[in-house]
């Protein structure tokens, strides 16, 4: 891409976005958005957190008739820690040193590992963007927000299988044979994604979110995380992380770092704009 064409899009050719996925997803969730970003002149890389992507080992009965053990079999991902996840993000950021400007983007539960990585190495991040994502500046655990009164209207709690503490993971069943379960999954995360595409999206989801990701406290400080300019991209009809709880996270973070508030942008639609409107999302992620 030439410098003149990059100027027409408003994106410097030496900018890269490092993309961190949310629960049950992986780097593949960003594919369409990355194509759109490339069309706008922005380079990007997508991270697979530990226990996701090809490391997402499902319960042994997941692909068997009747799916035995889905409610009781301990997750193979119980040893995955928040530190492991943050270090994966840090490794990706460290490989971006040849770019002049690095934008770290996190979706949903990915906000915890991304925030911890930014706290540990703020010099590697020029801006951090939260896409309807957990911001730990006000409360240290994602569970603290998902379980708050502001998130009481959220859907999807019935999707969780078994006891997360006993399983060591928050487990869902993307290949459930129950039409009502599948419809609840669609309504929670993908209600504005074309129906013919939703089945392809759900078939690629993993079953287990390592419990450490939503349950481990993440501490960020004004002197380190707080010195990084930050953007929050709200999803206006989010049914997994409600607009009210998104606002709560923004407000509490701004109180924790007074004088340097979030830049806030809003997208229409669901918790999964990378599936429903990747071109609009790409534009919203850019500086």
Automatic annotation (TrEMBL):
Listed InterPro entries: AB_hydrolase_1, AB_hydrolase_fold, Sec-Metab_Biosynth_Hydrolase
Pfam families given in the database record: Abhydrolase_6
Keywords assigned: Hydrolase
Domain AB hydrolase-1 residues, every copy: 17-284
Top-level taxon: Bacteria
GO molecular function: hydrolase activity
Descriptive protein name: Alpha/beta hydrolase
């Amino acid at each position: 891409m030439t410098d003149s064409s990059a100027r027409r899009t408003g994106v410097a050719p030496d900018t890269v976005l490092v993309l961190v996925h949310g629960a049950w997803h992986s780097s593949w969730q960003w594919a369409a958005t990355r194509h759109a970003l490339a069309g706008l002149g922005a380079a990007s890389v997508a991270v697979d957190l530990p226990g996701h992507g090809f490391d997402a080992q499902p319960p042994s009965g997941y692909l068997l008739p009747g799916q035995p053990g889905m409610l009781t079999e301990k997750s193979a991902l119980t040893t995955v820690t928040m530190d492991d996840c943050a270090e994966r993000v840090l490794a990706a950021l460290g490989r971006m040193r040849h770019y002049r400007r690095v934008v770290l983007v996190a979706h949903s539960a990915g906000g915890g590992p991304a925030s911890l990585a930014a706290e540990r190495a703020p010099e590697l991040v020029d801006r951090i963007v939260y896409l309807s994502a957990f911001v730990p500046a006000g409360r240290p655990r994602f569970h603290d927000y998902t379980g708050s009164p502001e998130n009481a209207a959220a859907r999807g709690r019935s999707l969780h299988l078994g006891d997360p503490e006993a399983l060591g993971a928050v487990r869902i069943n993307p290949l459930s044979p129950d039409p009502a379960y599948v419809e609840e999954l669609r309504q929670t995360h993908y209600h504005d994604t074309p129906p013919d595409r939703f089945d392809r999206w759900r078939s690629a989801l993993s079953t287990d979110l390592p419990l450490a990701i939503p349950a481990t406290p993440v501490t960020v400080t004004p002197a380190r995380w707080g010195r990084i300019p930050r953007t929050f991209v709200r999803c206006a009809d989010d049914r997994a992380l409600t607009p009210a709880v998104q606002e709560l996270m923004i407000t509490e973070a701004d109180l924790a770092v007074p004088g340097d508030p979030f830049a806030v942008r809003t997208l229409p639609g669901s918790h999964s704009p990378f599936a429903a409107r990747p071109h609009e999302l790409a534009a919203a992620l850019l500086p």
